[in-house]
Amino acid sequence: MPQQLPLDDLTLVLARIKGLLLTEEKVDRAVQLLAEGIRDAFPGSSGAGVSLLDEQGRRISTGATDAVVLAADAAQYDLGQGPCLTAWATESTVLVQDAGTDDRWPLWTQAVADLSIRSVISSPLLAGTRCLGALKIYSTQPDAFDTATARPLEKLVFPAATLLDNIQASETPKRFSEVLTAALHSRDTINRAQGVLMKQYGMSQEQALQELVQLAKTSRQPLLSISLEILAGTRNTSHERK
Asked: What residue spans define the domains of the chain?
């Protein structure tokens, strides 16, 4: 029989998971912590996983408690079917009482037949009107979870999804900033290399850029690498070879 989570324990678990996620700034780490916290919170679970998905159902971040969970999750996304994808697509909790006899996802159940997975419960990560992905718990025993298990799981998943959504939102500008900084650095380096060529050989700005592009083509190196070598004085130009 499934073991139920008392209200007091549920409150403590919810507080713990909130505390873990609130201290995180990285989505990947937060997803991993959530998977571990959910596994520990539910008696009878052998492992848990969390997947964040894009609008096409492709994983953008994954957390798993062990190799079995990783393998079971990978099979879902490789085959395009399974309880986690169904929970995400339908935005509703999916219960598998015995993977050995469940016929909803024949390819997936066949793929995990050797993974000692019997019971699964998966809930969507809903944040407002958006579904970020899904969370799933596995057990090596049949009938380890039931509809009563879904209620406390959903109580944990909703606030966790909101926190993950906030972490994603806060991380996006940072990632954009890092990419933008790198791009601006590259552009500045190339501009300075152009300036060196213009000064040394009386080239126009367009001629200097053409020289850098030609050097990159003939050496099969990135334009940034060529520019850095020009600035360091370690790259011979076509004018120096004449």
From this structure: 7-170, 175-241
Which CATH entry fits the domain spanning 175-241: 3.30.530.20, 3.40.50.150, 1.10.10.10, 1.10.3210.10? Answer: 1.10.10.10
Nearest-angstrom CA–CA distance, 165 and 216: 42
Per-residue pLDDT reduced to its tens digit, 27-80: 788 888 888 888 888 888 999 999 988 776 778 788 999 999 999 999 998 888
Domain 7-170, CATH class in plain words:
alpha beta
Distance CA 105, CA 117 (A): 14
Residue 177 and residue 52: Cα distance in Å, rounded? 22
**Does residue 136 contact residue 157 with C-beta atoms inside 8 Å?**
no
pLDDT at 150 over 80: yes
Supply the pLDDT for residue 176. 38
CA 130 – CA 91 distance, rounded (Å): 9
Q: How many residues does the chain have?
A: 242
Least Cα distance to 98 among 79, 87, 83 occurs for 83
pTM over 0.70: no
- Do the strands 47-53 and 59-64 form a parallel or antiparallel pair, or are they unpaired? antiparallel
